[in-house]
Structures are given as C-alpha cells and as structure tokens.
Amino acid sequence: MIDVTIKGAGVLGLCVATEIISRGGNVTMIDPNGAPGPHTCSWWAGGMLAPFCEGESAEEPVVRLGQKAAEWWEKHGADITHNGSLVVAQGRDIKELNRFGRKTTAFKEIDADTISELEPDLAGRYRKALYFKDEAHLAPRSALTVLHDGLVNAGVQIQTEAATDNNSMVIDCTGLAAQSSLKDLRGVKGEMLILHCPELDLKRPIRLLHPRIPLYIVPRGDGVYMLGATMIETGERTRITARSMLEMLTAAYALHPSFGEAEILEIGVDARPAFPDNLPKIRKINDVIYANGLYRHGYLLAPSVAGQIAEYLFDGKKPEFSDNVRNEAKNEHFA
Q: What digits encode the pLDDT tens for the residues 283-325?
C-alpha cells in the first residue's frame, strides 16, 4: 500500500487525498489550521468551472484539462450547476466582447431576445452576449466540505501538528506557505465581495467586460452573489482597498442597478499562488513532491493535478505538469 502525508487542506490537498484514497492508498493530512475554512484562499474562490472563458487569457492546458473538472467534482459528491456562462459588455465596450470572442471557443453569440430568455433580469440591457453553454459552477465552500467529509468517512483526519512517521511520501500542497522551497512562486492578490440582492435571480455566472475593471458575478442561490475578483501582483492577504471595492460595486451596479441596494454580507481577501507562466507545477525536491501554482484556476485544475500525482505514485506515469528544474546542489528535479 502507498502511504502519503499531504501537507495543506485547501482545494488541492483535498483533491490529492481524495484521488489517493480512491485508489486504495493510505493518507495522513496535516494542516495547522485544521479543516477547510477562511484561512485557505480556496474558501474565497468564485467556483466557476469555465475552461472556455478562461481561454481568453490562459494557456491551452487550462482549457483542455479544465473541461474534465465538472465531471470530477460531480463524481465526488459536489453539487454542480450546469447553466453555462454568459459574457456581456455595455455598448461602449462592445470591442471588448469581440476581442473576448476571438480569443475563446465553444460559445454562441446571442442577441437581446435570447439574453432575456436566459436571464430575464437582464432583459433590454444588452444587445448581444457570448453564451458558453457547456460551462458550470459550484459553491466552493460546500465543495470543500463534501471532500473533507468524504475523507473523514474514509478514516482520514486532518492533523494540526507534523506527523512523527517519516516513512511516507510527502506531498506539499501548502500554497504560498511553500515559497521558501519554491523560489519562483509568487502571490496574486484577489479581493471579493458576497452580496445579498433578492431583487435579482440570475441563473449562471455573468462576466461583464470592461477595459479596466472586468467583473464576474456568480449566483450562490437565495439572492446571494459572489463578486470578484481583482488580480493584483502582491502576496498581501489581509485587506481590501477602497479602490477595489468601489470598482467592483460600480461594475455590479453597471450590470444591474439593483445591486446598488444589495447588502454586503462578506468581504474576502487572499493571495493566489502562481508561477511565472500562471500554470501549476508538480515539482520534486529532496523526495518531497510540491504541487502548487493553481493561480485563479483552483477548482478548475485541482482535479487534474491530483490525478496526475496519483498516476505518478501508482502507475509511474510522469505528470504533464511535472517541472524538470535541475539544481544538483539542492537535488531539485522531478524524476
């Protein structure tokens, strides 16, 4: 039996543990903060399983591997909403919509009548939109809880202190906490809001394009919406700026004036771990496997990264995201 110790109980650590347990492995999990919660950046995610939309700025593996995410989450008990994604722009920003369409695939350009059929609350507000019907979304906190509960039912407990058994393979999924070992890992700050706006009943994630302040809004049900998210090149994780809040709320109001009367339920801030190319890496350093760098694609790519690690451990298959960095002085490479 394969024995592994997984450090970090965020979305990636939980996905890796789930994959290994499903193949008959033995897992010990360590996270000083315990079960998933506000201490992990995956707690504050949008939960959009939108590989085709992400293709606007992401590399090809994000689009290709991200298409498998919804099925994986559904298989492991998460509640997935398959309503697609809608991308809109105001009249003055229609060039942004055209640019988005040129950089993406698997969408249908729809007119005002079809927009009103899909989202009655947006009727008459937009002349055209891009509809990505094969995309989906989930509620991140519920998804984390489902994985955590599944692991607990399988006998896995999250320990808050380091284990004394040094015979198991160590897989580090600690995000920015691994920067001392992963020197090229950086933080990209994200700020988000959760609003209660019962006057609206949006059915799917909406992306409002703008040259300066693009916005996405993800419905959580019962009139609750997640607004996100900024991308600021800093590892600072503790405060939202007045500018960011103003710009997100202004964009939400531009999408629909009802957001002007919404109640702010939560403000979230954290930093996403990212490598220079914004793709994840599976890197082996001194017999520790580091899985990191999900950037803004946590729920989209964590299943694929986890599957690649499991295939390496059980089948000896080299991961697609393996990182062949070599530094003989530090024995830094992926075998």
A: 999 889 999 999 999 999 999 999 999 999 999 999 999 975 4
Output 328 or 78, whichever has higher pLDDT. 78
Report strand pairing: 136-138 vs 48-49.
antiparallel
Q: Helix 298-315 and helix 11-22: axis angle, to 10°?
A: 40
**CA 282 and chain centroid, separation:** 17
Tell me if 243 sits within 8 A of 86, measured CB to CB. Answer: no
Residue 1: CB atoms within 10 A of its CB come to 5
- Is 286 in contact with 250 (CB distance < 8 Å)? no
| Type of residue numbered 307 | G
Burial class (CB in 10 A: 0-12, 13-18, 19+), 309: buried
Q: Which two tokens stand for residue 76?
A: 């492991």
**Distances, alpha carbon 123 to alpha carbons 82, 197, 218, 227, in Å:** 21, 17, 18, 21
196's CB contacts (< 8 A; 6+ apart) are 223, 224, 225, 262, 263, 265
Q: What is the pTM assigned to this prediction?
A: 0.94
Cα separation of 290 and 302, whole Å? 13
pLDDT tens across 169-211, in order? 999 999 999 999 999 999 999 999 999 999 999 999 999 998 8
Q: Are 305 and 291 in contact (CB under 8 A)?
A: yes
Using CA atoms, how far apart are residues 281 and 321, in angstroms rounded to an integer?
5
Strands 169-172 and 288-292: parallel
- Alpha-helical (H) ranges within 206-267 are 242-255
State the average pLDDT over residues 103-111. 98
Q: What angle do CA 74, 80, 85 make, to 5 degrees?
A: 130
| Buried-exposed string 198-224: b where 16+ CB fall within 10 A, e elsewhere | eebebebbbbbbbeebbbbbbbbeebb
Tell me how far CA of residue 250 lies from CA of 198, 242, 254, 327, in angstroms. 18, 12, 6, 48
CA-nearest of 10, 8, 26 to 314 is 26
